[in-house]
Amino acid sequence: MQIDRLADRFAPLVLSLVRIMTALLLLQHPLSKFFGWPVAMQRPGLFSLYWIAGAIEIVFGALLLAGFYTRLTAFILSGELAFAYFIGHAPRGFFPLGNNGEAAVLFCFIFLYFACAGGGPLSVDAVWRKR
């Protein structure tokens, strides 16, 4: 089918675009925690779990945005979001809809996918592979 050929042709580019958008969405969280932008949030206490999570998200979110060591970066972020879900959301109820954990679960599994699939052609990793 023609749609299959079209999908196969653009799949690597879409992988890169999904990685970039996911990184931008993730980066909203630490930027809000630390700088009050784009939405003001309560500032975390220095070296609290909330602060450490923000530090991980800002460093590895930036790496993911660039596609730099994408597989390792995404694996670390997947683990961080799994930890965030089980520490911060699961104690409030079993179902993600009831404990406000849908975003953490989605981010966790999207990052797990990037850990397997890589960053796509629009990444630092792809540029290095070409050399």
UniProtKB/TrEMBL annotation:
Primary subcellular site in the record, as a coarse category: membrane
Signal peptide (UniProt feature, chain positions): none
Pfam families noted in UniProt: DoxX
InterPro entries with a match to the protein in the record: DoxX, DoxX-like_oxidoreductase
Cell compartments where the protein resides: Cell membrane
Transmembrane segments annotated in the record for this chain: 7-27, 47-65, 72-91, 103-128
Protein family according to the UniProt entry: Belongs to the DoxX family.
The name this protein goes by in its record: DoxX family membrane protein
